[in-house]
TrEMBL record:
<dbReference type="Pfam" id="PF01042">
    <property type="entry name" value="Ribonuc_L-PSP"/>
</dbReference>
<dbReference type="GO" id="GO:0005829">
    <property type="term" value="C:cytosol"/>
</dbReference>
<dbReference type="InterPro" id="IPR035959">
    <property type="entry name" value="RutC-like_sf"/>
</dbReference>
<dbReference type="GO" id="GO:0019239">
    <property type="term" value="F:deaminase activity"/>
</dbReference>
<dbReference type="InterPro" id="IPR006175">
    <property type="entry name" value="YjgF/YER057c/UK114"/>
</dbReference>
<comment type="similarity">
    <text>Belongs to the RutC family.</text>
</comment>
<dbReference type="GO" id="GO:0005739">
    <property type="term" value="C:mitochondrion"/>
</dbReference>
<protein>
    <submittedName>
        <fullName>Putative L-PSP endoribonuclease family protein Brt1</fullName>
    </submittedName>
</protein>
<dbReference type="InterPro" id="IPR006056">
    <property type="entry name" value="RidA"/>
</dbReference>
Length: 128
């Protein structure tokens, strides 16, 4: 039977107690929950536009992956949720700075509302 180990780091926003984990490691794979552009120290969304928010989401995911024993270079799949597809190009201008030459598989969808009414949330799956 596969083991399921939760990941928790103070370098990323805390998960809601009893609701979800920042990530789960199982069979050499890290499954990260969605990251919003929240400052882990204040627990509040950072100021800025979609570009700043995209950087913060990926920064938070990077810290979670590191706590799991992985990193952004090992990301296999990314899901991006936008509150408005008009932000697609600006989000991509930041997104493409990450993950090297071989980008992970990705899905990007627009949704009606995101947590704390932010404009972007990003989740990913990586290997150890």
């Amino acid at each position: 039977m596969a083991t399921k180990t939760p990941v928790l780091t103070d370098k990323a926003p805390k998960p809601l107690p009893g609701i979800y984990s920042q990530a789960i490691v199982s069979n050499g794979v890290v499954y990260c929950s969605g990251a919003v552009p929240m400052d882990p120290e204040t627990g509040k969304l950072i100021d800025g536009d979609i570009k700043a928010h995209t950087h913060q989401c990926i920064k938070n995911l990077g810290h979670i992956l590191e706590a799991a024993g992985s990193d952004l270079t090992k990301v296999l799949k990314v899901n991006v949720f936008l509150s408005d597809m008009d932000n697609f190009a600006e989000m991509n201008s930041v997104y493409t700075e990450y993950w090297g030459d071989v980008k992970p598989c990705r899905t990007c969808v627009a949704v009606k509302t995101l947590p704390l009414n932010t404009d972007v949330e990003i989740e990913c799956i990586a290997h150890l």
